[in-house]
Amino acid sequence: MITAGTADCLIVTGMPGAGKSTVTRLVAERLPRFARLDGDFVSRLVVSGRVGALGEPADEAARQVELCNRNLCTLANNFSDAGFTPVIDWVIPDRAQLDFFVSLLAARQVLFVVLAPGIEACRYRNTLRDPQEQFHFDGYEDLDADMKRELGDLGWWFDTSALTPEETADRVVREARHRALVN
Predict the structure, then answer these.
(1) How far apart are CA 172 and CA 22, in angstroms?
(2) Model pTM?
């Protein structure tokens, strides 16, 4: 079971619409002294000159993704040092980015959960979001294949297609420490 006050950092990833935001919010609310770190929020701290992860120019998009990743890890370390278990909500699409997180969280045990309800569930769930929160994305097939190829043997690939967000969060709290450790 994940408990407060440990030197763990929980990273929850998955494709757009997988349920990351909802599940991480519920996980963080279930136990005392948890901090939820939203990668979308951190990336939007850049207001002027912001380039999204898939935007152009590609080199600037990559630089801003790295900045966001670095900031998420710094926040996670700061919260952990203060006795809060950090829960990161962010799309981590490949091994290089996960390795970067693990290297910056070296003092922590990193638990890596991939919410994997399937492409159709992700597309459907995205349509249920508030229109301002919807993510217009046509690369599900490529992202799914890339994530499986790059990360398929790491962490806990959790098929949540038949679970409610509450059931998913309960299982993450109960099982992640045993199923999702990557370092």
Answers:
(1) 13
(2) 0.94
Question: Residue 142 CA to chain centroid, in angstroms?
Answer: 18
Closest Cα partner for 86 from 98, 78, 95, 94?
Answer: 78
Instruction: Pull the structure tokens for residue 46.
Output: 């850049």
pLDDT tens per residue, range 108-134: 999 999 999 999 999 998 888 888 777
Q: Tokens 């109960």, residue?
A: 174
Residues 6+ apart with CB under 8 A from 70: 104
Distance CA 163, CA 118 (A): 13
